[in-house]
Amino acid sequence: MRASNPQRLHTSHSVSPFIRRSLLLLLTISILTAPLAAQTDQDTKRATAERLVNEVGQLRNEGSEESLQRAIQKLAAAQPLFHALNDSSGEALTLLARGFLYDALGEKQKALDYYNQALPVFRAIGDRGGEAMTLVNIAYSEREIGKLDDALAHIEASIAILESLRTKIGSQELRSSFFATVQGYYEFYIDLLMRLHKQQPTAGYDGKALQASERARARGLLELLTEAGADIRQGVDPKLVERERSLQQQLNARAQQQIQLLSGPHTQAQAAASAKEIERLTTEFQQVETQIRQTSPRYAALTQPQPLTLAEIQTQVLDADTLLLEYALGTDHSYLWTVTPTAITSYELPKRAEIEIAAREFYESVHTSPQEAANGAAAKDDLGGERQ
């Protein structure tokens, strides 16, 4: 709903907080990694473009319809400056940000138009993170206008990209932020599948949502093990592990160099040489990964978990006397699945915040002795409180 006065807009129905954080991060990275130029007209244009982008962030934080419209105007002014600088990354990010702001204003079709303009630019410069971010924004907008099948294709493509990027993140702080982002994508994915299930109850979307929940949990377990310092490479040849790390660092550096190269003026020969080098490193990295998996099945099971499908759960895990209950909490809706060897039934539950409050109250009630409860009630009476 669009605001009729300059009050803060509430846009959680359209764009989740993790997308907002990721977009601001992308904009910041674009500015920090922009190639430096001499004190020329280009330098003036870059300074102006960066100032406009910074002002957009301030206006976005105000959150009113008027401030968002002004932010869109500033991005419209910044985009041709990035184009004149041959800064494809900056240009793509301004397109993405314009789509984001139209999305926040509830103008879904305009948002989609700008997302679809940004997508080929991110792909052209090899910015996989920007591509994934654009795809998930497209999926959000498509869900809101009822294009659920299109949204499903785009969120699945986005998750596939993010999963491929996971191993390329070395910093624990960045890994934690990345993990939170991926979990948000999975939450959206599960909700989308359950909406499709509601429309087509016999198409098997509930089973796919259950499998998506299993994938998210598997990914969560791996990140917890990594954060706890668990040696998941135990038993693997140390030389292979070191080679894996070295190749990962080289790939990260080359990928960033490629983005910077393709974002500015370059020749076809330079682009081809960059792509060839990345392809060589990727092939070598994959070969090392294969060797590690072959020598350590335990490592492979942890780093590349393959969650069971609904049919596999029913035939390999359950018997006639066993019932599986699995739930997934979400910002807007939560879901529960009950699975037997012959059937699956799903239920829509309240949102995460409501369930957490109820769970906390129940926990406190069963862990409070009668004497403590009586003392608490007496203290409340002394303070003039009312008993419920």
Describe the protein:
- By secondary structure, the chain is mainly alpha-helical.
- It contains 15 helices and 3 strands.
- It has helices at residues 17-32, 41-62, 65-84, 88-104, 108-124, 128-144, 148-165, 172-199, 205-227, 238-263, 268-295, 297-303, 310-317, 352-366, 370-382; strands at residues 324-328, 334-339, 344-349.
- A 3-stranded antiparallel β-sheet has the order 1-2-3, with helices on one face.
- The radius of gyration is 25 Å and the shape is globular.
- The protein starts with 16 loop residues before the first helix and ends in a 6-residue tail after the last helix.
- Residues 1-15 and 382-388 have low confidence and may be disordered.
Give the arrangement of secondary structure elements.
Elements (H helix, E strand, L loop, with lengths): L16 H16 L8 H22 L2 H20 L3 H17 L3 H17 L3 H17 L3 H18 L6 H28 L5 H23 L10 H26 L4 H28 L1 H7 L6 H8 L6 E5 L5 E6 L4 E6 L2 H15 L3 H13 L6
Antiparallel strand pairs: 1-2, 2-3
**Mean of all residue-level pLDDT scores:** 80
Percentage of residues in DSSP E strands: under 5%
Strand order of the largest sheet: 1-2-3
Pattern of helices and strands? HHHHHHHHHHHHHEEEHH
**Rg, Cα atoms, Å:** 25 Å
Distance between the termini: 36 Å
From the spread of the alpha carbons, the general shape counts as globular
* Count of β-strands: 3
Helix/strand class:
mainly alpha
